[in-house]
Design goal:
eight-stranded antiparallel sheet, 36% helix
Length: 660
């Protein structure tokens, strides 16, 4: 294949626009985004970029790039460096500015990588595939995931821009095609062995890479084997990973939003290259996007469950950008803007401007997108039963309460944290009870800290994790845990969760959501003499005001505070906590732990959480548990002078709510 023929193919995919015409459109329509791209390209020219392990700061990676060096000790540093995002940025800066220095640097880095980073052996002496060469930290640049990401995320955009450079010769293209062919062999042969159930985001990205390159370069797929295989496997990924309620099976909002985007790129490739999209597959993208909105705090940002960021990446914004790429419908971006910010929307758009099949369409849509955010018209209670997750809110306005809880064990994969029955709560534009987030993927004490039970708002028996943490990607045996029921009546939402991970002790947690107020019932059964229940609350505050052992208030200098009341007095511990919103960054928080001993083989405790604006007076609260016999009891609680009660009868936890 000659560079001239490739250029013609690419122009057709871009509605007749050359890379320079696209670059001029980007500059004229989206000037601030174009400037951002060029600024990042200038940093890349100097070998500077931000990667995992660099403390969220620019770091010198070499010029030319030291592809396999890892000065941080974090495997993600090597993985993400070899995704070549910075070369994509250089190629886009070339299209925007027309300056060959960017293209020359990009081509030099590409050829340097192909020359120095050799693909590992695919088969052993017996002809069997060596999957270990393409999986795990030792696989480095040729991990199957990075192989797929280069093929869908960076190389297509890089090639579409650089083909217009005088430095992109037929010899350069020939060298590049040889490397792409080796990539496709890995993705076709190795990936299905690694992910036979198609139930992981890695397999989605790996097949997306195979599909993208097979469509873009049919010369490398003469009989269509790669393309058919990838198309079928992407559909299988949709069936395996997208639940009936629209959640991605791993249950982590950041990965969910990423998956919406990755699923959408199949449709984007098909529009650009004249392939008819599958309506059933596309309907899955719609369902997933609406789950993205449910998994977003009203104040903005993800609920950071499991390995999830709060912001600024992999939010509902990137899901909306993907859905727009898949369908051309601006409503997705308008709804995401209502839940997010223009800054985050533009950051995600800037990464995808050169993927747009028709920039003129985006130019036409953009004023409507930016000037008319659309409030979601969705139910306030979302029970994602397949994920054992529940989302509830008092409305869709910024100051409305957002609540999330989950109990699914054994977990789907190691992106989940050790946090059965934990919860996340925000109201009045502020986080009150926080899931701590990721912080790092690197093995070590911080990875464990952010995954551990005691960093989450859970019940622990004797301060132990709910199951064994063996390493950043390995857990011990887990018992059954699930959401038992979700009901809504009489102005109250009731969520019952139960797990057996402290066997023989069974933990049952019941949330009663009454407006913005949360009443929590914690029950531990089959406790031995001397056992203690640690009831933890990870509070997004650096200061508590403790009136007595039954009453605590958070103190903040932002929008909201929370008054807390407990049904029984006893020892408590106040510890320093950490909350991470993005990799390698954290802020201080506070963890309050109630310590409650078992009595007659069990423990029952009620906690009352009352959010309020910081400027409002402290709310009066009291709660007590009145035991009638072992299985029958009543929770009596008072909020701002108004008494109510919930009576429980029997182990089935059949309740009767009385709003007096």
């Amino acid at each position: 294949m000659k560079a001239g023929a490739l250029k013609e193919r690419i122009e057709k995919a871009n509605k007749g626009l050359t890379c320079f015409e696209k670059g001029r459109l980007v500059s004229s329509i989206f000037g601030s985004m174009a400037n951002r791209i060029v600024k990042k390209a200038d940093e890349a020219m100097d070998g500077l970029m931000i990667l995992p392990g660099t403390g969220a700061k620019l770091f010198f990676v070499g010029s030319p790039t030291n592809w396999l060096d890892n000065p941080t000790g974090n495997p993600e540093y090597t993985f993400q460096l070899n995704r070549m995002v910075f070369i994509k940025t250089l190629s886009e800066a070339f299209s925007i500015t027309g300056d060959e220095k960017y293209a020359q640097k990009a081509i030099s880095e590409l050829l340097g990588w192909i020359r120095t980073v050799k693909r590992p052996e695919m088969k052993d002496e017996n002809g069997l595939f060596i999957t270990g060469n393409f999986d795990g930290p030792d696989s480095k640049a040729w991990r199957a995931l990075e192989t797929g990401i280069r093929c869908y995320r960076t190389w297509p955009v890089i090639i579409e821009q650089l083909v217009y450079s005088k430095h992109f010769t037929n010899e350069v293209l020939e060298t590049l095609l040889g490397s792409i062919s080796m990539h496709l062999e890995v993705l076709y042969n190795i990936s299905p062995i690694l992910w036979p159930k198609a139930d992981h985001n890695h397999y989605l990205m790996e097949n997306l890479g195979l599909y993208t390159m097979a469509v873009m370069f049919p010369e490398l797929d003469r009989d269509g084997t790669y393309r058919r295989h990838a198309a079928n496997e992407l559909k299988r990924c949709m069936k395996a990973q997208c639940t009936k309620e629209g959640g991605q099976i791993e249950g982590c909002p950041s990965y969910h939003n990423g998956c919406v985007y990755w699923f959408s790129l199949k449709n984007n490739v098909e529009e650009r290259y004249g392939i008819k999209s599958d309506p059933e597959y596309t309907s899955g993208i719609f369902r997933m996007f609406y789950h993205s909105l449910h998994a977003t705090r009203n104040m903005g940002g993800n609920i950071p469950w499991g390995d999830s960021h709060t912001k600024p990446v992999e939010t509902c914004s990137v899901a909306a950008v993907g859905a727009y790429l898949a369908t051309g419908d601006p409503l997705f971006l308008q709804k995401a803007l209502y839940m997010s910010s223009l800054e985050i929307i533009e950051n995600d758009l800037s990464d995808n401007l050169f993927r747009m099949p028709d920039l003129r369409r985006l130019e036409k849509d953009y004023p409507e997108i930016t000037n008319n955010p659309v409030r979601p018209d969705l139910p306030l209670l979302h029970y994602a039963a397949a994920l054992d997750q529940v989302y509830a809110r008092t409305g869709w306005d910024k100051e409305d309460m957002t609540f999330m809880t989950a109990c699914r064990t054994p977990v789907q994969n190691m992106h989940a944290h050790i946090d059965p029955c934990s919860f996340d709560l925000s109201a009045y534009g502020d986080v009150l009870v926080a899931d701590p987030g990721i912080y790092t993927y690197k093995a070590g004490p911080e990875r464990y800290r952010f995954k551990s039970t005691l960093s989450h708002s859970c019940v622990s028996v004797n301060g132990r994790d709910a199951w064994e943490y063996k390493g950043p990607w390995e857990y011990g045996e887990q018992k059954e845990g699930k959401v038992v029921s979700v009901t809504q009546e009489g102005g109250m939402i009731r969520i019952v969760e139960r797990h057996e991970n402290y066997f023989p002790v069974t933990i049952t947690r019941v949330f009663h959501i009454i407006g913005r107020d949360i009443l929590i019932l914690d029950i531990a059964e089959n406790m031995k003499e001397g056992d203690e229940a640690y009831i933890s609350f990870h509070l997004d505050t650096r200061k508590l005001e403790i009136s007595d052992s039954l009453h605590v208030s958070t103190k903040k200098e932002s929008n909201a505070e929370m008054d807390m009341a407990f049904s029984s007095s006893g020892p408590y511990i106040v510890e320093n906590g950490k909350i991470s919103e993005s990799n390698d960054t954290w802020r201080d928080s506070t963890i309050l732990r109630l310590i409650r001993k078992g009595c007659n083989g069990g423990m029952v405790n009620a906690s009352l959480l009352l959010p309020r604006r910081r400027t409002d007076e402290r709310r009066e609260a009291a709660v007590s548990v009145i035991m009638k016999d072992k299985d029958d009891f009543e929770i009596v609680f008072e909020i701002d002078g108004k008494k109510s009660s919930v009576a429980y009868c029997g182990k089935g936890l059949q309740d009767e709510y009385s709003d007096n």
